[in-house]
Amino acid sequence: MLYREAGQFKTTYAADQQLFPIRQDRIGMAILLAVVFVGVPVAAATPALAGMIDFNYWFSGVLIPFLIFSLAALGLNILTGYAGQLSLGSAAFMAVGAFAAYNFELRVPGMPMLASFILAGVVAALIGIVFGLPSLRIKGFYLAVATLAAQFFVVWALTKFGWLSNYSSSGVITAQKLVVFGYAVDTPVKRYLLVLAIVSVMALAAKNMVRSSIGRAWMAVRDMDVAAEVVGIPMVKTKLLAFAISSFYCGVAGALYAFAYLGTVEPAGFELELSFRILFMIIIGGVGSILGSFLGAGFIVLLPIFMDLSAASIERSFGLALPAGLVSNLTLILFGALIVFFLVVEPLGLARLWQIAKEKLRLWPFPH
Amino acid sequence: MQFFFEVLIGGLLAGVMYSLVALGFVLIYKASGVFNFAQGAMVFFAALTTVGFISMGAPFWLAVALALLAMAALAFFTERLVLRPLVNQPQITLFMATIGLAFFIEGIAQLTWGAQVHALDLGIADEPIEWLMGNTGMNISKFDLVASGIAAALVAVLAVFFNKTRTGRALRAVADDHQAALAVGISLHRIWVIVWMVAGFVALVTGLLWGARNGVQFALTFLALKALPVLILGGFESIAGAIVGGLIVGASEKLAEVYIGPHVGGGIESWFPYALALAFLLIRPEGLFGERRIDRV
Lengths: 368, 297
Known about the structure:
The complex is a heterodimer. Chain A has helices spanning 13-17, 23-45, 47-52, 55-82, 90-107, 113-132, 141-160, 188-210, 213-223, 225-230, 235-262, 272-285, 290-318, 326-345, 349-363; strands at residues 173-174, 179-180, 183-184, 264-265. Chain A is mostly helical. Chain A has a domain at 54-271. Chain A is globular and about 70 Å long. By secondary structure, chain B is an all-alpha fold. In chain B, helix 7 packs across helix 9. Chain B contains 13 helices and no strands.
């Protein structure tokens, strides 16, 4: 009833090509943006609400990591979901981004923060191109193994070459203070807004990228590379561009991870485990979907928190102490089971469920 | 020169272990086309189950038998719940499913048996062989030698199994051609369960040997990562390739660590096999003994 596009006619080419062709989607998006950009910070600034909810925890413990992982998942989704090249090295590119941003800030006096984030992405993109070169000859899990090489090599290099971490022990770096346009981003709310702004812009760019010619070329390569080459899609350019842009996204996510989320990072924090987590995000969220990256990141970030909370409440209400490691092992089991479950039951992930819900909503409440 | 040989032999013996893990991969890949990332987790699970039963007071042989039973159950449920619903999916989907499976197995193993490091004593001393030490001055561990002996025996048993038994021949038939195997009445589902059981058995042997060496701990799961370059070098379909690849990776990573490592800061063992495998991929993508695939439009 509410969600129906009947009566919305497209009279111009611009209307035909717009991002959200259905008016309800546009309104929904506007409301969503208003809530996350204005509503949430205003709520956090309201004393009455701030007394009830620990906003600092929500910002720095949930929302900021969620946004950052969404960005990383977006990057991996471009490479794996759209271009069809499985990568197990996303954490490595995040590490490159984090350390590059740190070094730009450290070594270039007066470097604007946003510029060093962008340059960090560019450095990650260059490294991504280097490790994407094998994709020109190999595919499938041979390529996955090649990206594993990137994973191990980058973490090793960041630990071993002291110059990259300004000669701190075991490569630990402490990110510089976040200052954007002379404005100190020092509270959780401000950090949240900064990350949100960056993620929104990059998500918009990604959305437009995947529906333009380059995105179509990626999907053609994904679906059948030989056929794509036959119809004249330049294989080298398309694949390497996918690697570059994916790594750019991961690099910026890594820089934000260091600067806006953790503050102090070390190469060992960007282990294979993190790459797997990002891969799980896109599998659960939806391979080949921008929305899916966000849904998957939200799911993977929230699941352990939810597990911890429910374990704590069980402990409280039954007055028993759960053995240490129980929750983390259960989370591990749940992750594994969910991956298999989604691959079997809904290979297109949560994004597909959302799409089905929208189809149903168009007919609701009169399905006939 | 003597030092060189010592490193080389030490590397080769370590390589035997990589070969064992790679062997588990190859068995499953040949029979079902699944690239089983969970092999490392299976090694961990098998070893931990054995140690767990021993710590509960079971004698060694009973613990091994029970662990074998657990691996069989694992194989059965994997086939039922993971492989069968995903039949005919792209290989990469199955690969991702086995990553999920690996997480699942790791969680189950640690939930059941705890996460602490367990010692495992097989009754073989990890000490240098004396007469070799006395005659040539080379430091070769007795344990490594026995372990490679066991590995060789395992490969021999597998060879007999694959060549002389009815089931083994059925496995080879499936590996050769799924459709032809189906046509002559071989049940694919049964074969998959069996091949995962065999891989579980290999995982158990690997887990016991590695566990006795370094303690039964979570790090065993990383063995899967060591085995990937081995597979690329040797080829995904070849048992001989797994063994030769393992030896090459073992020897070269130790030699590289000793001779190249000091110039770049050491610790290159973590990625050197991958670099080697990548370089190899560019020259011979199907591996040393793999089957050449030709893509057709």
